[in-house]
Amino acid sequence: MKQINLxxxxxxxxxxxxYIPFAxxxxxxxxxxxxxxxxxxxxxxxxxxxxxxxFIYGVYVSSKFEKIYGKDxxxxxxxxxxxxxxxxxxxxxxxxxxxxxxxxxxxxxxxxPFPARSSEKLPGGWGIMxxxxxxxxxxxxxVHLIVYTFGVx
Length: 153
Fold this sequence. Notes:
Layout: H1 6-12, H2 24-36, H3 44-69, H4 78-87, H5 95-111, H6 116-119, H7 124-150
Helix pairs in contact: 1-3, 2-4, 3-4, 3-7, 4-5, 4-7, 5-7
């Protein structure tokens, strides 16, 4: 059986949220929100590279999680962190919009609108990560529409 080292376990499980026996994806998303609220993290020159780096590493580490825990295992929540951050790109940083984004993102991650559900069939870590990226972009579009239509900040 392939082993996961401590760094892979910490990162892949979203600071061990993947090992919470219920709603691990939601807890992984909450970790992403806490990191987002670190002062300055929302700046695009910080957030975008963080998303790209964690996505690339997430494909790798989630492939390892899948070999040990099975297809799209709940122990792997790195995909939720990346998805949450994508959902928050260039959104005005406020508690109201962060909460709104969080709820829209979690709903879409569960519903998996087209083509998110079918992308889960991609091999290994690609299937684990891409469905969340797709759902996150839907969330991002919806929240931006809310912000710019209703002037919510």
